[in-house]
Sequence to fold (300 residues):
Amino acid sequence: MTSPGSNPRVPPAPGSNVPGSIPRVLPHVPSIEVEAVSFAYPEGTRALTDVSLRIEPGETLAIVGQNGSGKSTLVRHLNGLLRPTGGRVLLDGADVRPVHVAHLAARVGLAFQNPDRQLFAGHVSAEIEFGPRNLGIRGAELAERVALALAAVGLESVATANPYDLGYSRRKLLALASVLAMRTPVLILDEPTTGQDARGVARVQDVVARAAAEGRTVIAISHDMRFVAECFRRVVVMRAGRVALDGPPSAVFAEAAWPELRASYLEPPLPAVAGARLGLGATPTGGAVVAALAAGPRNR
Ligand SMILES: Nc1ncnc2c1ncn2[C@@H]1O[C@H](COP(=O)(O)OP(=O)(O)OP(=O)(O)O)[C@@H](O)[C@H]1O
Ligand SMILES: [Mg+2]
Fold:
């Protein structure tokens, strides 16, 4: 592994050179290769078949697809929670099979789809502390990580609460915060916007944007096509355990791909449909759609 800060795609974090501040240089961001991965659960369900993906350092990738198409199973392979029954997962070209899950956790953070499978501590701050503490972080840096993670998801006011006294949407944000505090170079969010109101979605969008701006790789599973189109530069569509489409939102949401999307029980986002009808492409800005509509049919 290269030394911290050697990745040219990772800019120094703001404030990292301020005297007395805690250094916030991100560790090296690895490439990820999923090489012909197949996976069957022990009782026989075949969840992945021959999935291949290469994810470059710093990419933002959304994974979409109908329920049961294998999205969560796929990301659980990236942090070693599951091991493929066929094929390989590589970080920086090295097979992760012999790497202990605790070591992978320092590089690949995964916020679970179901927060209740992730949360276990008696109060919110302890939950967030757990991951970085396991990485050997202590003292002022640990306190700072907890405070920043709490602030990132807007849970400062409930730092001492029992996680199970929070509603589902806030438990989901807490699960996200506890992964954020580990500052992993790869951040994976399994359905982060589920159950969130507009403010919660905005917080998640902000988390994604900041992590991407820092040069981290961000992978999110989502059923929210608008969130996907607005926040990610690459979209993978899964169907029945395979990759059905893989490309930028402008291609995956383009009219030519709609039959494939609909075969995967997905609807293209409204701006993509409006953009196609108005001749603006698959990822028009809201302003461009409004301007084209205001111009009236004779000007279109
Ligand atoms: N722990 C498990 N044991 C057995 N089968 C499982 C397990 N988890 C998932 N499956 C099965 O594997 C397949 C893929 O499931 P997975 O959870 O990866 O899909 P998903 O795309 O994340 O779905 P969703 O959108 O509902 O979250 C499904 O048929 C599912 O029923
Ligand atoms: Mg899932």
Observations:
- The beta strands are 32-40, 46-55, 60-65, 86-91, 94-95, 108-111, 186-190, 217-221, 234-239, 242-247.
